[in-house]
Amino acid sequence: MPIEINWQLLMPELIIALTLLIVLVFDLFDSISKSILGWMTIVGSGIALWVSIQMHQAGTVGTQFNDMFKVDNFSLFFNIIFLVSTILVALISLSYLGRDDRKQGPYYLLILLATLGMMLMAAGNELIIVFLGLELMSLSLYVLAGYFRDSPASSEAGMKYLLLGAFASAFFLYGIALIYGGTGTTNVPAIAEAIIAPNKSPLLLAGMFLLIVGFGFKVAIVPFHQWAPDVYEGAPTTVAAFISAGPKAAGFAAFLRIFMEALPNLQVEWSGVIIVLAMLTMTVGNVIAIAQTSIKRMLAYSSIAHAGYILIGLAAANNDGISSAMLYLLVYCVMNIGAFGAVILAKTEDGESLVISDYAGLGLRKPLLAMFMTIMLLSLAGFPPTAGFVGKFYIFKSAVQAGHIWLVIVGAVNTAISAFYYLRVVVTMYMREPEEELPFASYPSTLVVGLVLAAIGVLLIGILPSLMLAPAQNSVF
Amino acid sequence: MSLEYYLILSALLFTIGVIGVLIRRNAIIIFMCIELMLNAANLAFVAISRSLGEATGQVFVFFVMTVAAAEVAIGLAIIVSVFKHRQTVNVDEVNSLKG
Question: Which range marks the domain in which residue A409 is found?
């Protein structure tokens, strides 16, 4: 029996796969300038993004490969998140990697491979596809985290990420095995059908908790978050921006799809756990972030706290919860990459400015940089009229509708706590005098373009929330 | 033999792997323990697949073995690059990143 393949459904994935093959081949030629590979990545991801947006607007739905691969508005919306992250990260990477040609080829190849893995995770309608997508993404990221082989910190970050990531993957896999044992299938809709209310085998429950542990590691939920600060600090800053954005969204994509579509009949069992994890994650992330002196570690703990806010959407477990979590993930990716981009822009001739006190006096000496940093930090803290406010507002609203008032109160208190450490950086930039004036490296134009795009995105969604809210509401399974 | 025996063996292997990851300090040994956890999952897949009389689980195992091989290749390369910097792969001594 010939298998009919609907190529149009697979377009975004195929474009990314083709782009990464072209990058791989062009990396072989020594005679061309390797920065062209970065531009190929941006163009390829841009085309895939355009195709995804078209498919999303047309409301394309369909399954491929014997019901294993599902294209719907949910997966297409996540494709948009991943591709926007990839384009922004490629833009801020162009100048960061420097003029060393040997470094460039594999870097963009790995970024594209990780992006392909994320797209598979969001479209996986079968646990095997989700697992393979997760591994494709994770294996590329382990290499990226240890990408600067000459730097001991980068190698160490790579090793820590590898050991804890592989540990988490094993939990995830064992969870899949037990769910397979409990239901006899690994197909997402078939699992939901096999779980009938009284038939809750212990295998199934154990499998579900192992899945929570596996996802918890991947998206950095307390108490599975310890790897995140070390990896963000040691990894190259552009890679830290990438790890904090796309992979977290991909983890949540699979998390939402598996828990809302395959395990809705176990909601009584998992919703309590998710609520407790959300509260813990927000509180621990924000409280520890206050004590940080390194800006990359501060952003790492802030990204842990943001995972907690997104979990509120899953805990609400209604359509509004899912759509607001998706909107929040989009907003979060843009503003977090923007914040890391501003850290790269603050580079002096001595190297990167990684301690918060290095930012003293930047408000007067580098007004453009200070403005970008302020926009991103205000958005992360959730001040109007930025996108961060819109994201938090809809997340909290969905939780109120679901009746989780306490969760919203904890979230609101945490937003107040987080304002303290975000604003501290802003205050340092505008109101402190620098101890010594180091000469700055010049502004690379591609990095500024990336930051301008991120800032426009953050302000546009902040002022016109319906621009992205309506598509997100259209995208619930 | 019934399915339970296989699942108990697989749970035991998985637990040994988890304990190994948590208490051993050599990065290579930790990595071996992770492989043990993956193989415990493989055993569960094969046993369940056999008792259900359908092939999904066995196909899954092939993919997991491929992924594990890729993971080893990347993992050992990263561990070698750490060793070049520090002349040790003891995870307690590789701790310059903390705060």
Answer: 268-477
**Candidate from B3, B48, B71 with C-beta closest to A166:** B71
Q: Would you say residue A347 lies in a domain?
A: yes
Give B1 to chain A, closest Cα distance, Å.
Answer: 16
d(CA A430, CA A192): 54
| Token pair listed for A160 | 């820590």
How far is B69 from chain A, CA to nearest CA, in Å?
11
Give the H or E element holding residue A69.
strand A69-71
> Is some CB atom of chain B closer than 8 A to the CB atom of A146?
yes
- pTM, rounded to two decimals: 0.93
Q: What is the DSSP letter of A4?
A: P
Classify A211 as helix, strand or coil.
helix
Q: Of B10, B38, B75, which is closest to A170 when you measure between CB atoms? A: B38
* Number of compact structural domains in chain A: 1
Q: Which two tokens stand for residue A250?
A: 């991909």
Would A307 be classed as within a structural domain? yes
Q: Are residues A156 and B41, on separate chains, in Cβ contact within 8 Å?
A: no
- Residue A416 within any structural domain of the chain: yes
Cβ-defined contact of B99 to A233 (cutoff 8 Å) = yes
- Structure confidence by residue, pLDDT tens digits, A140-189: 999 999 998 888 889 999 999 999 999 999 999 999 999 999 888 899 98
CATH says B3-86 is which class?
A: mainly alpha
Residue B43 C-alpha, separation from nearest chain A C-alpha, in angstroms? 9
A234 has a chain B CB within 8 A of its CB: yes
Quote the mean pLDDT of chain B. 91
Does residue A1 register a pLDDT over 60? Answer: no
Q: Residue A469 domain-assigned?
A: yes
Q: Does A172 touch chain B (CB under 8 A)?
A: no
